[in-house]
Amino acid sequence: MLTMESPEVAEQGVFRDSQIEFDLVTSLLNDPAQFNDVSDITPEMFSDTNMRKLWMVLYERKGRIAPAALVHEMGKIPGGHAALDDISSGTVSTHDQVVNFLFEAGVSAGPAESLAPIIRENATKRFVEQAKRDIRPEQFSNSIDYASALSNRIAKIASSMSPNVRSDSLLDGIDEAYQNFLWMQNNPDKVTGIRVGWEDYDNESFGLQKGEIIIVGGHSGEGKTQLKANWALGAAKMVQDVIDRQPHVLYFSLEMRSSEMASRWLSNLAGISLRERHLTKTQLSDVARANIELRQLATNRNLIVVDAAEAHTLDQIIRRMHKAKTESGLDMAVIDYAQLIGVSSAGEASKYEQMAQVAQRLKVTAQQLEIPIVLGAQLNRDAMNNSPCGRPRAYHVADSLDLVRSADVIQMIWTPARHINTSKTHPWGKIAVLLTEKVRSRAMSPELYYHFDFSTTSFEAVNRAVKEVLLDEESQEWLKGGRRAAAKTATTT
């Protein structure tokens, strides 16, 4: 496959198949007589930018165009010749050669009429998903206004499709939207996604939503692994509103062995430091209780750990998720972390290209399996020096902006005191801040504050009194001073 997808198109949704779009374009080039069979396929239905531009030309000419004329007409479209360059991927040197390749590829592409339904279905699914992301119940003062807005948007989608096309995916989308509306009406105090056990976060986020990619980033040693492990454990323990049972959570630990993860969870459940060597009778009893609880979660398949020895490539990880979905059900997946995922077809591909593939395929998998995927991400090494007081930002994610673009939610864990010489007794001394850098479909607070105990890998939301101290004038001046000092250090190093 020689085409490339643009970021702006990828943002429209994950229901896309670039190979099918490529085959349809080349099939019509090879046999223009097929145009009447696919005349309802408009350029807007293509997710691949390059194929969209080619289809614009073919659509105007009803498929009948000579190779030389195609090169000429592509030059009239903004970015048309650049699209031909992208399609070539460096394999041929001229636009004429690219076009000849496209004509030749059509010989084995298959009949256009068999490809068109897939394009229609994917396009409809993308439009419906975009409507669901754009229109959320929390944006409206009452449920009637929400239902009306959603219905109007879906009606516009339906009218924009060819009248001779009946799309089951659109009907499915309407049914799902309506059922979500009814569920929220009947369950006003519940959330629509998977709760992670952090009450403030669950209420803010409405839970981790199916089909979403949630990126969790942070500097090394600031608790991002602990956070993901905390969420996985918290989710597995809770009877979830949306499914009325404890979920099945699959945790891919690509850096630690399963025994290491078990140690962290036992420590968390028992509230005992990992460094503790001489336990009291009470502490031993707490560990025994935690052991029983953790074993029960594992036995019931509520919490499953897969380490790097079992799966570390992208293909292996995706297969394991599909297997879990089939065998015991799967409601949530956590991967720690993106940059450790191996891409079997990497070859000479750069790390950026590999991460682009990771982003795209995991997004598709999240949608197919209807689960949230929490994906850990490393930051660029210079991120600490290039940000005041080490505050991480979305664009600090290492190796790929595609991860950032594909994500529905981006959270960053930040412990300011680690970047400023201060006493642990200072109000900011053991505070971890969860920063919301991106959220696609709902509003969330930009900062949530937690007491972070590294020894037990536990997070506890600060109370109102502590938060007021953190936000008072003296603490903010301290933080500002630390930021200035950090910035000064960065400029001199």
Model description:
The protein has 18 helices and nine strands. It starts with 6 loop residues before the first helix and ends with a helix. The radius of gyration is 26 Å and the shape is elongated. The relative contact order is 0.09. α15 links the parallel β4 and β5. The protein has a nine-stranded mixed beta sheet, sandwiched between helices.
Name the CATH architecture of the largest domain: 3-Layer(aba) Sandwich
Let me know the largest β-sheet: 9 strands, mixed
Could you say which structural class the secondary elements and strand pairing correspond to? alpha/beta
Tell me the series of helices and strands, N- to C-terminal: HHHHHHHHHHEHEHHEHEHEHEEEEHH
Total of helices:
18
The residue-averaged pLDDT reads: 81
Rg for CA atoms: 26 Å
Unreliable spans are: 1-13, 162-167, 483-493
Number of domains: 2
Helix content: 40-55%
Strand content: 5-15%
CATH superfamily of the largest domain: P-loop containing nucleotide triphosphate hydrolases
Distance between the termini: 45 Å
User: Strand order within the widest sheet?
Assistant: 3-2-4-5-1-6-7-8-9
Reading off the top of the CATH hierarchy, the class of the largest domain is best stated as Alpha Beta
Shape: elongated
The CATH topology of the largest domain comes to: Rossmann fold
The number of E-state strands comes to 9
